[in-house]
Specification:
This is Class I SAM-dependent methyltransferase. By secondary structure, this protein is an alpha/beta fold. The protein is built from eight helices and seven strands.
Length: 245
């Protein structure tokens, strides 16, 4: 839900009629008071999985926004944590609100496009929370290749993924309606604002990660509930760059 101090309807409308980059620059000061920020109920289960896989030396939060994933990385990384985002406004808010401490790991904030990451293979862990709807399906292979390129051999790419809504359910119709509105908006208005929730399908994502060269495993997140058939509502993807590649 939106907090009383969150963006007004007018502010959200202006954001929605902007580009992705400009829209988030405008939203940044109030972003943490919106439902778009990844909640602790998602961060905590992913952190639990990461603790079983780590510790790690260097971690990257891909499309970090104001830094919801930065604190998760600080719990499991010993030397270096980096947040990267295309929005200078989001990075500025994250940098200003981040806890400062002399203890490791050091935290860096870098403005860059996730489709052209300015890093060598120096990370042991890359995480991302809630950003993949901003990339069209045809962009995902390049995005995954970028992540692969900045990981050391044996490094992990970790992110939560929600099971598709059951056809005919309220969630299914809500997501279908949202994506339809976005497609109409982008057909009629420029610049485009890319945010599609139904295009990030687990089976497609898993296949694309494998084609990129990752070994892919899924871990259930039972804290986030079960579907009517008993399967998890949410899993965490652990994609590993194999040693030697």
């Amino acid at each position: 839900m939106f907090a009383p101090q969150g963006p007004t309807f007018r502010e959200l409308t202006v954001q929605a009629l902007s580009s992705v980059e400009r829209g988030y620059d405008l939203l940044a000061p109030k972003f943490d008071r919106t439902p778009f920020r990844t909640p602790e109920s998602v961060l905590a289960p992913v952190s639990r999985v990461l603790h079983t896989l780590g510790p790690f030396d260097g971690g990257l939060d891909l499309c970090c926004g104001t830094g919801a994933g930065i604190e998760v990385l600080r719990q499991v990384c010993r030397e270096r944590v980096t947040g990267v985002d295309i929005s200078a406004g989001m990075l500025a808010v994250g940098r200003a609100r981040a806890r400062t401490t002399a203890a490791a790991p050091r935290v860096e904030w870098v403005r860059a496009d996730a489709r052209a990451l300015p890093f060598a293979p120096v990370f042991d862990l890359v995480v991302s929370f809630g950003a993949f709807g901003h990339f069209l399906p045809r962009e995902r292979p390049g995005l995954f290749a970028q992540v692969h390129s900045v990981l050391r051999p044996g490094g992990r790419f970790v992110f939560p993924i929600v099971a598709p809504a059951r056809p005919g359910s309220p969630g299914y119709w809500a997501l279908l309606a949202f994506d339809a509105v976005m497609r109409v908006r982008n057909a009629l208005w420029r610049p485009r604002f890319v945010m599609y929730y139904r295009t990030f399908r687990p089976s497609d994502v898993r296949a694309e990660l494998a084609r990129t060269g990752f070994d892919v495993r899924l871990h259930a997140l039972p804290e986030l509930g079960l579907r009517p058939d008993g399967s998890p509502r949410c899993r965490v993807v652990v994609a590993t760059r194999p040693p030697g590649r």
